[in-house]
Amino acid sequence: MWRGVTKLCKFPTRCYSDNFYSTTNALYIEQLHERWLSNPSSIHPSWQAFFSATDAGQSQAFIAPDFTKLELGEKDGTSSYVSDVLKVQLLLQGFQRYGCLIADLDPLKLTEHVISNQAEVRIPGIIRMENYKFTEQDMDREFDIGSDLITGFMKTDGPHRGKWKLRDLIERCREVYTGKIGFEFMHIPFRDECNWIKERIESDELFSNSKERKIEIFTKVAQAELLEDFFHKKFSTHKRFGMDGSETAVLALHSLIDRAIENGVDNFVIGMPHRGRLNVMANILETSLEEMFGLFYGIGYRQVEEGDVKYHLGQTMVKEIKGRTVTIRLLANPSHLEAVDPVVVGTARAIQNKQLNRSRTMAIVLHGDAALAGQGVVYETMQMEDLFDYSTGGVVHMVINNQIGFTTTPREARSGQFPTEIAKAIGAPIFHVNGDCPEEVDFVSRLAADWRSEFRGGVFIDIIGYRRYGHNELDEPLFTNPKMYQLIQKHTSILQKYTKELIDQKILDEDSVNSIKRSIIDGYEKMFAMVKLKSETKTEIKTHEREGISDVFRTGIEVPKLQELGVKLHSLPKDLKPHPQITKIYQNRLNTIEKGSGIDWATAEALAWATIMSEEKMDVRISGQDVQRGTFSHRHSVIHDQVVDRKKYIPLNHLSLNQGSFTAANSHLSEYAVLGFEHGYTLANPNSLVMWEAQFGDFVNGAQIIIDQFITSAEAKWGQESGLVLLLPHGYDGQGAEHSCARLGRFLQASSEDPYTIPDQIIKEYKQCFFNNIQVANPTTPANYFHFLRRQIKREFRKPLIVMSPKRLLRHKSAVSDLAELADDRVKRVYDDANFDGSNVSEVRKVILCSGQVYYDLIEERKKRGINNIAICRIEQLAPFPFEKVQEIGKKYSKAEFQWVQEEPLNLGAWQYVETRINTSLGGQGKHDVSVVSRPASAAAATGYLSVHNAELVALLDKSMN
Q1: Is 543 among the domain residues?
Q2: Do 330 and 436 sit in the same domain of this protein?
Q3: DSSP 246-263
Q4: Of 226, 625, 705, 774, most Cβ neighbours within 10 A?
Q5: Is residue 886 in a domain?
Q6: How sure is the predictor about 21, in pLDDT bands with cuts at 50, 70 and 90?
Q7: Whole-Å CA distances, 139 to 129, 163, 164, 168, 171
Q8: Are residues 275 and 378 in the same domain?
């Protein structure tokens, strides 16, 4: 179980008020009371008198008095000492909670310069010394600050354990909490977690490094900074979105990964924006410098299809480190800065599921300060932190805090003092650190790795630096931020600062510094010379090609096997007490399986999953809001006992001993993050069927960035294959705009095929799907849906499949299949009209082509009117378009006119996609080019008035039948 699921804490240590007079420490008083009960002489005489008076010598649990009314420092004797101890306690807690606000975190010290629009720092009263009215004599008084509550500041000198002079305590607080690191952890409600951090940071020395470690840190910083300098000098006219000014972030990744490996991690999944990506690829993933420099010259090291800019690319490294085989993945990411966040988490979770261990794989996400505070997918992703089917045992978030967006200042970009305020929503500690201080950056990175190992929770590292060259290297930042960049121009680099520090400490001398730097630069120069020579010759661009592609695989399963699995799926344990309606549903499904007919949508889906798990031995995962039951109460893949709370039964996990696993993950109320998660899952586990289902099809547009930047284009840009299936409930039933349309036309618009050319006959259906970027289906039968799902895993390549999933057809009396259809050969991309064979084809005056549930409306209307000269044909797979199948229909009905009918408005359905492709397929056959019948073009996807909907449907059907 993860940290937040089962964590119980009797004494959450929270401190809410900025007013120190209203902040109390009942836990400290309670601990003193316990000591008094066991040994009255172990505490100060004033506390002895206090408890004697308030507790009357009784041993019952102590109830702290209301200290908000205590007159602090005003009385003599016992009350005065109690009051002063409380004030010292408040001051200590003030430093622990708010010291980060006055810590020395900004390398540029912007707040010391009057810069307009900078965020104003308000200092809470609890850390304002003037509020306490301590005198000079008080500074030399000794106070017992407690042996249990203040774990890190304890002294171990016998009976004086926990006693401090006020002057020493304040000095130590300032050293720990207002230095180059700012710690935020007092918002965590669990005492053991807070104490763990205190013990690590309140020790006698915050951190110390050996000579060897300092030299190692120096070398890492030198490699990062010198590479940025090299890029800048050699490629001065290129954008690279360098890390200049925040190079210690590379050191932070080194330190984080090193310590995590020591803690047992052997897989790392990293996501980051474009800033600093090239440096991370070179120095963390050890990408060949020859390749790195080649990216600037555009020579074809990794060009596939359209490709992508160099600072969006990913990389994977496998290497022996500290005796372990370690894999580090940097995922590709577009310029949508935080879009990769859920993809990272999904990829990490898929790896963990294969390892059967959460601790061996770590997700690391790098953020920019402006994007972290501004983009909602960050919060959506963070809410997966403790969810059963999404948790990865703690994500490490690293903020490369440039203190500016493109040109936007922090005051314009966020409402909080720090961009990391969002971390408090999940109780994650935050370590702010001055980016000019390599050793402090190293310390907090190792601390973060240890936190994640200890508590399996998220943690944030906020590296505060700057951006030396503006948003990109061709930008002029002085246009909009003159004062800031005047300071940056005068600011000494991190490497120069650290070099001076180590020379002053006699760790290095000038000769050794120059030797290290020369060695690094010589390596860069050598690789650069090789690439420059290669750039003068032409290179062939690699295309995404695959040899030996076979014909389509058979997707049918024999009827006896289907019936065997169907009986297992729908036979419930005797000790299970399901809802009576569930019992009826399962019995009805079992009856249809035994008869071999009347198979509905949910039954066909369950059989597809069962065959994948039992026959192919692959896992099946479906996620989304309410997918266990199904939004339309049709699936019921997880059955809940009505008597025993939380007892449940999942039939799909009880098929055979060596079957694949089934997961139905009810997600949190997110589309963007959850769809990104599932996409990431498919990247790491392609040999599984992974599905995401929207509550209603239109809701998918909350994840449009994931669709555009990953699902439809990742293969072309980065060579990433994904077999993710999107189920988008679609169909017009008078339920309003958001409950009708899955924006079919938007997906079809993203299809990359040529609409004007019929694929060569040698390119069969299998190859046509391989060469296209996506598949879009609008199936009308449970059997065809069954085959679409099985086709996803039978191939040796992976393509996204977008399914216009039905609503009305889930229970439509005609939308059922026989088991024989599930046993059939393969997907039916097009259904011809079975009413017309060779003898009566010549009587057909019009062929209606359609897709989806409108087919059943058309069939019913034709029957009602007794029409026998209109053929109705269904296109089940819209992308890639079945040119040859439509061509066959054109030849069959050569004398008929062709019409496309859709229930969607003219501008929102498939018409704009299919028109050209149908005409290309017909090639002049038929009386004229295909016409269209639809609802009128509309800004809203559908009407919310049932009466209007019905009138529109009547008009649509009437026009279709004429």
Answers
A1: no
A2: yes
A3: -THHHHHHHHHHHHHHHT
A4: 774
A5: yes
A6: very low
A7: 12, 13, 10, 8, 11
A8: yes
